[in-house]
Design a protein that fits this description.
Distance between the termini: 57 Å
Radius of gyration: 29 Å
Number of helices: 5
Order of helices and strands: HHHHH
Helix content: 55-70%
Shape: flat
Oligomer: single chain
Strand content: under 5%
Length: 130
């Protein structure tokens, strides 16, 4: 069966009142949720590692890294010089690689902001000349 450009393969769409299969599955599982939870907890308590993992993932929030303030001095100079100072700080043990990656990312974002600002100013100057 070939479809014509601009024509729907199902012009009338899904009939009203037809429930999506996922919704039906969800309703079926929800009706048994309490029993499922009890079973998973029972399996976890019996030593099932996958069940333990599932339970722990549901009751504890994921750990997120906490960035502490770092002291590497003021970042001066070109963006390349600032990046080099950050990389040097890794070698000196002042920064961890993840801290440095965060700082490099911040510098990259700042450079995009500066670039957009400069383009906007140059465009305004060109428009003023015209």
């Amino acid at each position: 069966m070939t479809f014509k450009k601009g024509k729907s393969g199902n012009p009338r769409g899904r009939p009203k009142g037809v429930t999506d299969r996922r919704t039906l599955f969800r309703k079926h599982i929800e009706s048994k949720a309490e029993d499922l939870i009890k079973k998973v907890v029972e399996m976890a308590l019996d030593g099932d590692v996958r069940a333990m993992k599932l339970c722990l993932e549901r009751i504890t929030p994921p750990m997120r890294p906490k960035d502490e303030p770092v002291q590497i001095g003021e970042l001066k100079g070109t963006l390349a010089e600032q990046g080099q100072k950050i990389l040097s700080s890794i070698g000196e043990g002042k920064l961890t690689p993840s801290e440095a990656a965060t700082m490099i990312s911040a510098i990259a974002s700042q450079s995009r902001i500066v670039e957009a600002d400069q383009i906007e100013k140059r465009l305004a100057a060109l428009e003023a000349k015209l």
